[in-house]
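Hi support team,

I submitted a single chain yesterday and got back a structure, but I'm not sure I'm reading the token output correctly. Could someone confirm the output below corresponds to the sequence I sent? I've pasted both exactly as they appear in my results page.

Thanks,
R.
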Amino acid sequence: MDTHVPPEINRCIVIAAPHTSNWDFWYAMASFKILKMPIRFTIKKEWMRFPFNLLIGPLGGIGIDRTPHGKSKGRISYTEAMINLFKEHKKLVLVITPEGTRKRNEHWKTGFYHVALGANVPICLGFIDYEKKKTGIAKTIYPSSMEKDMKEIMDFYASTHPKFPGQFSVDVHYA
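Hi R., thanks for writing in. Yes, this is the structure output for that exact sequence:
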């Protein structure tokens, strides 16, 4: 297991990639438990109702409510909702799967980067490498330049080995 998370980091985004199998979730959860990282993940608030909350809550799920509040307020974006989570929690390690699917996706969602920038938190590169039978946190990036940072992120993930290689791609825009 690799861990390059500075011990003082208790507020960060953790990218979970590659994500090509349902098993990835369970291996990642076990890894974060071993690393003693109190990870959380976001999910629609509707999934935090009984009986699903009995499983999702203890696993680290946080329900996101994007319902407009007040007369003149519109619906907030998912990115803004996650930035608000960092405002509400002194300690928050938020896991995000920017591929957005277990199928091949050559265009990653970049909301994780905007959340990290907006919340002023670092991005940790979490990974599962099935060929090397390794999992962990490879490095920590402090957002500064999206083009440069995304290239560094894609360069790292290009060398990982997912469970189903044909279902994984880095974002071709930054590769």
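A quick pointer for reading it: The CA atoms of residues 37 and 123 lie 14 Å apart. Let us know if anything else looks off.

Best,
Support desk
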